[in-house]
Structure formats: structure tokens, C-alpha cells
Task: inverse folding
């Protein structure tokens, strides 16, 4: 049973978003595991650029595809925040200070996810533009033959 074209396209860009995000997640998690402290936004930008390029070439590009790549790829931040939660809970502060520290940590994690989404969206937009340029240059070269 074939899905209607609109639903099929939605399903396609979803797979591109999740696939690109999972690639970033795995690469970042491996890097974090090896270094113990580094999470790089460059992987998000590069993966989103590739996803934006490929999605545009296959006509399934959707606004927000890069943000989704960034959010999925930003999940290793949770690995990094786990150590901070353990540290905060181990401190001998009053419960109100402990809760305040945990709330600040949660706000910071949310901020990092927002920045990851922004980097992903910028990368996808650049990839989309690159795909549009190569598509135009390919059409122009075929029209002169």
C-alpha cells in the first residue's frame, strides 16, 4: 500500500532528519567517550549540510529539517549533564540550593539543544542552497549541448 505523495514526502524528510541526527549522535558520543569532555557543533553543521543537500536534490527538503538533525544530534549533551547531576546531588547543600542548581543545569541543557538546532538549521539551509546551485548549473550545462 502506497502512501499519498504528501505523506510520503513527510515520511522521507523525517528519515533524513533522524538519520543525520543519529549519525551526529553516534559520532559525538564516540568522541565524548574518547575525550570525556568534548562535544563539537561542527559535526552537527556538516551532517545538516549533507542532509539539506541530499533532501533538496531528492525534492523532500522541508524547513526545520536541519533543526531536527541538530536536536537529535545534540542528545550527547545529556551524557555530559549526567556527570553534573551526580556532582550536584553529591554536594552538601540545602535542598533548595540543590534544586536551583538542577534547574539551572536543565536550562543550560535546553539552551544547548536550541543552539544545536540553530546550527543544524543553518547547515541544512547552506546544503539546500548548494543543491540548488548545482542543479541550476547542471541544467545550464545541459541546455548548451
Result:
Amino acid at each position: 500500500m502506497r502512501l499519498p505523495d504528501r505523506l510520503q514526502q513527510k515520511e522521507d524528510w523525517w528519515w533524513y532528519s533522524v538519520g543525520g541526527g543519529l549519525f551526529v549522535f553516534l559520532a559525538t558520543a564516540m568522541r565524548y567517550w574518547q575525550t570525556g569532555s568534548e562535544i563539537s557543533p561542527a559535526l552537527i553543521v556538516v551532517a545538516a549540510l549533507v542532509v539539506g543537500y541530499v533532501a533538496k536534490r531528492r525534492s523532500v527538503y522541508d524547513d526545520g529539517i536541519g533543526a531536527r538533525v541538530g536536536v537529535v544530534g545534540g542528545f550527547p549533551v545529556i551524557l555530559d549533564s549526567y556527570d553534573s547531576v551526580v556532582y550536584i546531588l553529591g554536594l552538601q547543600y540545602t535542598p533548595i540550593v540543590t534544586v536551583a542548581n538542577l534547574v539551572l543545569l536543565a536550562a543550560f541543557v535546553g539552551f544547548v539543544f536550541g543552539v544545536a538546532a540553530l546550527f543544524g538549521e543553518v547547515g541544512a539551509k547552506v546544503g539546500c542552497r548548494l543543491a540548488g546551485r548545482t542543479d541550476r548549473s547542471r541544467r545550464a550545462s545541459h541546455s548548451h549541448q
